[in-house]
Amino acid sequence: MTTHAPIAIHDDDVLEQAIVDHRSLGRRLLAPMLVALGAAGTCALVYAVDPNEPGHYPLCPTRALFGIDCPGCGLMRGTHDLLHGNVAGAIDHNVLLIAAVPLVVVLWGRWLNRARTGIRPEVTRRQFRLRHRILIISLIAMLAFGVVRNFVPYLGSGTSGP
Q: How many domains does the chain have?
């Protein structure tokens, strides 16, 4: 029976090599631009049609079935307020919206830049761990917010009923 020396694991080990996308620039930019177009269209609809008026949009399933606010409750009303320049109203409907909007814009910008250059950079073990920690912490924070907002009055979605 042969024994092997243990393999040293380092934080700077490359887990995924850099990848070059050989598709045309137009093809690489198609998905991020379609997402931007869809987001702009959705924002235009939410800007024009007030979600505070009943009957225009479907009810949140969690709110309708259980009578509680999910972490996303109030996002549409908050987006409507934010698009109309009412930051306080947006925070009142869902405080996570203020953190989510800049994060989504930055992530979309990184996606757009990666599509423009056609290069997906290498991923080291340290980056891989960091990404997963951020994902897990974000999910735990959203879950905790979803629970806490139903017990702390000023964190609610700003509605009195389904």
A: 1
